[in-house]
Amino acid sequence: MHDKICESVDHQKRVQQALLSMPCEDDINLMGYRFKALSEPSRLKILFALEGGELCVEHITEAVGGNQSAVSHQLKTLKDNRIIKSRRSGKNILYSISDNHVLIMLKMAKEHLNCNE
Amino acid sequence: MHDKICESVDHQKRVQQALLSMPCEDDINLMGYRFKALSEPSRLKILFALEGGELCVEHITEAVGGNQSAVSHQLKTLKDNRIIKSRRSGKNILYSISDNHVLIMLKMAKEHLNCNE
DNA sequence: TTATCATATGAATAACCGTTCATATAAAAG
DNA sequence: CTTTTATATGAACGGTTATTCATATGATAA
Q: CA–CA separation, B13 vs A46, rounded Å?
């Protein structure tokens, strides 16, 4: 009996299981891009600003600080990753959080801060 | 009446609201680091491997491919960000997902893939 | 149409980060 | 103790990315 690295219960079976339930490469990459979009403080600030409802670019810029061009680039990243959506209203483009999944993730992230488990 | 950029409802009030409910700088940065930890495909693979339960480093390495050193570095990043935890069992260190917040985030990320909202 | 206002985009630089290779630690077995 | 096995760490290279500046687009008002 020498082929076991781990003495604990059937880990080899779990490796098989892990391999079977592993999402495909493309899905993993897509999730990675989306988490990356959420990982930049400047973009997180935008999302927390949008938690209260839709805002136009100029007001987002006021709320998060920084300049308009930077905010616009960040908005594009968030939108490309379906984290926010936009609609036109007169001269302005109003941005808002895309869906509930995003809101829940933000909530989990905040709760996780004070979690001592 | 020239001081309104946005014709839509009380956006200026929302800017104030956004500023008030904005998490502090440190918390934003911490959340950023944690999302960044979740953003790398190699680390996401590890987490999906661990969704089925705890695994030792060697088995994680088998499940995700790559070499032991890279996996060890990734595990450190995940652990530093409280996304996973570890315990010793004989010769091995067994890693597992830290808490429910992480599991829910992974679930949201997967659901978000097939979300056409 | 022309001018103006709001937003978007391209290129470039600077900072950051994942992987690799080589090596270190630390527990367990002999 | 010494050796072996499992895991961790440090340094360095290569690739990625956020911001800035300048400019473009595109809707609206005149």
A: 16
Helix boundaries (H) for chain B: 11-21, 25-38, 41-50, 57-64, 68-80, 100-113
pLDDT in tens, B34-77: 999 999 999 999 999 999 999 999 999 999 998 999 999 999 99
Q: How do residues A57-105 score in pLDDT, each as one tens digit? A: 999 999 999 899 999 999 999 999 999 999 999 999 999 999 999 999 9
Q: Residue A1: what residue type?
A: M
Domain count, chain B: 1
Interface test with A, best of B21, B101, B104, B116 (most A CBs within 10 A): B101
Residue of chain B whose Cα is closest to the Cα of A22 = B48
- Domain assignment present for residue A88? The answer is yes
Smallest Cβ–Cβ distance between A45 and the set B8, B17, B28 belongs to B28
CA–C1' span, A111 to D6, in Å? 34
CA of A17 vs chain B CAs: smallest distance (Å): 7
Contact with chain B for residue A5, Cβ under 8 A? yes
Supply the range of the domain harboring residue A49.
26-111
